[in-house]
Amino acid sequence: MKEKEIKLKRGQLYWYILEVIGLTLISGGNPLRPIIPLAIKEIIKTLKELKNLKVDEKKIKKSLESLERKEIVDLEEKGDEVFVRLKDKNNSTIIKYSIKALLDFKKKEKNWNGKWFLVFFDVPEIQRNKRNYLRKYLVDIGFYRYQQSIYIFPYQCEKEIMLIKKIVEGTKYMKYIIADKIEDERIMKTFFKL
Question: Across-strand partners of 177?
Fold first, then answer.
């Protein structure tokens, strides 16, 4: 498959890099690359393999310098290589992109066992902002909105839900269910291309 020769939107590479770092962190060393510290060349290879994207090393370094200024990563030069180290693996930005990257990877692998993984919550009206953030976040990371406060994913995601509970206050109201069958399954199969 040919790499995408597209012009990235402003800031898009930054978020892709966070996904690569996050995937490496959350999976204990992503399936394609070793655990952090991660060399810039490894980030480039992973972007090519996961996103089918060809990116110039200078652009990667510029985005990493931005992450360093925000105190998310440290850059360390060793000879002609630059390595990326996380300042704090519990940083909520890294956790958020770790989850997204891992769920994207699961969708790409398409290893469906016929079960559905549901997340539902009942956040009180007084915490409306948290509830709205949670709804948007679940859609952003790839869940299907089955109902207003019920979201579905076709692959095992209990570990990711535990991480979401870490970064979103008010998630004590979240529950996780595994179902063998759901009504309107055809719609979900179409949505997830199963």
Answer: 118
